[in-house]
Amino acid sequence: MRIGDERVHAVPGKALYWIGSDIQVAPTVATKRITTMRVAVIAVLVVAATAAVTAAQPTDSREQLLNLEKEWEDAEKNHDVTMLRRILDDRFIVTLGDKTADKEAFIKLFSDGAVDPTESATLTYEAVIIDGDTAVLVGTETAHGTREGAAYTRVYRYTTTYIRRQGRWQALAEHIVRVPQAQ
What we know:
The protein has three helices and ten strands, in the order ββββααββαββββ. It is of the alpha+beta class. The chain has a domain at about 60-180: Nuclear Transport Factor 2, Chain: A. α1 (about 30-75) packs antiparallel against α2. It is elongated, with a radius of gyration of 32 Å. The protein starts with a strand and ends with a strand.
């Protein structure tokens, strides 16, 4: 297209407008609608993806925590010091009845002591509470074994606090109390 002495190229989806002696190129109404629709669709997809990730996170975290609890139980049973060090935060503290122990003292219970006579243990979870990068598990452990030729069953109640750092859960604190046997 020629306007005066200058050659003007038409741009698809754009309209030419005269403003004084200048020619301006602007999007057509149809182009504006398509752009607006694209932005709206992208916004909806972003919101939906964010909602899906947010909704899935507690479930994923819950599963990660329950798996970590099983790994912890196995590490204690197998005296796996390396696994215990990975599971427990460096600031870990445990309350066992009326005593407390830090990470290394707790690990020493499983690395230096006599073989645990527990033959099986069942964990039951009453609550798994997750709030961002902090989680609290409340449960019961029922242990069965034989000590000095006599079978036993012991029940423990526990509360464990976990923190997530760099995508990995670690135990920060645990409180364990033995449930008295019914008389």
